[in-house]
Each structure stands twice: as structure tokens, then as C-alpha cells.
Amino acid sequence: MIKLIRNFNDTEVKTAIRDVKDGLIKYKTIMELFRNTDVSKDISFQRKYKGFYRMRFFIDDSIVTYFNFFEKYKNINPKPTFINTLTYFFEVNNKFQYSFVSKLLATLDPELPVWDQNVLSLFGKKNPGNWLPKGKKIEEANEIYNKLIEWYKHFLTNKEGCNWEKFFDGIHPNSNITPTKKVDFVLWQLGAKIKKNKNGKANP
User: Fold this and answer.
1) Rounded distance, CA 119 to CA 126, Å?
2) 3-state secondary structure 8-37
3) How many alpha carbons fall within 13 Å on the CB side of residue 130?
């Protein structure tokens, strides 16, 4: 199982939780819209989603494909798997979009984690190397994602994970988001702070 690169004290965790206030509001708006709109057509939803998840470099055709896929699987079970979705978008866009695939899947199923550079860095992980062949990239990415899922499941049942959730609920009561998303918010903030301290500024 993967592990965090270091332990975080209660003060660090509570500070991270306080810092998610604006992001939490935006996330809840996105999830409310998602449940009640056709995401393939609703420009307002798409704008909010792209802004929240920083999809700056998507070209128009890729965006259309992305949100069409989103809407197609919104009310279908079982949901698409990470490996199948990653492969599909590679075949369409000729790019591996690990993070944006995970964000799509985590919106379809909020019990799933988000693949993000800030989060991966806390586990000492990075995106698969660009030099790897396609099949190896897919294999390595799927392994990393499954390890993230495994870590979240374990963490949310242990004492530290329960404390994080208790802290989150104390600072943001009635957030009505999943335990997985609460931890995701905390990890992103912790990773962003570490990156800021290293680089002198926060990077997405």
C-alpha cells in the first residue's frame, strides 16, 4: 500500500480544512448542477467545472467529447472504469489525461479519489514517464489509481482518517460531501502548501 511521505499534525490539517472554504462552495455548486442538468449542453456547468478543475488547455473538440461522455454515463451503472476511460480518451485525443479522467469519474461517483499532482506528490508518486510505451503508461497509471483507492479505503477507517473527517465536519458542518472528497480537499491543500514552500508560489 502507498503511504504519505510524512505525517501531518492536527494544526496543519485544520488549516488545510479552513482553506478549502471557497473550493467547497464551488464543488457543491458543480455537484448540484451535475445532478440536475444535461452536462453535454449546459454551458454554465461546463464553465464552472472547467474553472474548478483548471481545464485550461482543452481544445473545443476535446471538451465536446469529454462532456458528451460525462452525460452518457451519468445515469448508467456500472460506471466506466479508470483504465477503460483513460484508454478511450487517449484514442480520441492522443493524450493521457490521468487527472481529468479521474475528476470525471469522481464526479460520476464521489466515493472515488481524484488523481492530482498535489495529491500524488504527498505519496511520492508522479505521472507515468513520457518515455514509456502506451501500454506501459496505461498499466502504470491503473496501478497508481488502484493504490490511491486502496489507500483512501484504509485511511477512512483508521483513527487518523476519522479525525480528519471529524475536523472537517467541525469546521464545515453539513457539507454533505463524501468522506473521500473531504480527504481529497485536505490532501490537495497540504500538497499545494508544500509546493508553494518549495517554489515560492502555489501551482495547480
Assistant:
1) 10
2) CCHHHHHHHHHCCHHHHHHHHHHHHHHHHC
3) 2
Assign 202 a pLDDT band (cuts: 50, 70, 90).
very low
Rounded CA gap, 63 and 50, in Å?
A: 9
Question: Whole-model pTM above 0.70?
Answer: yes
First to last CA, the chain: 26
Rounded CA-CA distance 55/8 in Å is: 29
Q: Rounded to the nearest 5°, which phi and psi values hold at 115? A: -85, 115
- Domain ranges within the chain, ordered by starting residue: 10-199
Could you identify the residue written with the cell 498535489?
118
What residues contact residue 61 under an 8 Å CB cut-off, 6+ apart? none
All three cell numbers of 13:
490539517
Residues 6+ away with beta carbon under 8 Å from 88: 69, 80
